[in-house]
Design brief:
Layout (H helix, E strand, L loop, with lengths): L1 E9 L6 H13 E9 L10 H12 L5 E6 L3 H7 L2 E7 L3 H17 L4 E5 L10 H9 L10 H10 L1 H12 L2 H8 L1
Parallel strand pairs: 1-2, 1-4, 2-3, 4-5
């Protein structure tokens, strides 16, 4: 186990199974893992910071060395303020690597003592992103297996009309669908 604190920053809007995979694995590597939600006033998130914190609290309650926090501004400044020595980042594809490499190099320029560790998610989560989950959920599509159960429930609550429409379309008879299309 690596001594000290590592930070796993992100928007977590919403938390996915890919995020949870990295949190679980990161918690086994680092003495303390701080999952830090970025408060970004430039974006309009689906879930409030408080809602994301609550979901993450439920998901990490059994992980004794995982701490939750929020921050705004430069991540390197936040990392310094909590004495983190490492940043944990997930990489799903080459496009992620290019972006994350730029960020890691800029972070190193701003704070040379802060290391970045890249982890790949489990294969079954390699295509999952919060953005894709939001898009599928907003269209009323199934997100089972993409997000933990508590997050799936919160998505259903938040997007109730989209899910009702999707569920109604699933239960509508094929004959009635044909009539409606005509």
């Amino acid at each position: 186990m690596i001594k000290g604190s590592a930070i796993y920053p992100g928007s977590f809007d919403p938390p996915t199974n890919g995020h949870l995979d990295l949190i679980q694995r990161g918690s086994k590597i680092f003495e303390e893992l701080v999952v830090a939600i970025l408060r970004n006033s430039e974006k309009t998130p689906m879930f409030s910071v408080a809602e994301r914190l609550e979901m993450l609290r439920v998901l990490t309650e059994d992980m004794k060395n995982v701490r939750l926090d929020t921050f705004d501004g430069l991540m390197v400044e936040y990392a310094k303020s909590i004495d983190a020595t490492c940043v944990l980042r997930g990489i799903r594809a080459i496009s992620d690597y290019e972006y994350e490499l730029q960020m890691a190099l800029m972070n190193r320029k701003l704070e040379p003592t802060l290391e970045t560790v890249f982890m790949m998610p489990a294969d079954k989560y390699s295509y999952v992103s919060s953005r894709l989950v939001r898009e599928v959920a907003q269209a009323g599509g199934p997100v089972k297996g993409l997000v933990p159960e508590v997050v799936e429930q919160k998505l259903r609550e938040k997007l109730d009309p989209a899910y009702k429409l999707h569920d109604a379309n699933l239960t509508e008879s094929p004959r009635r669908k044909k009539k409606r299309k005509a």
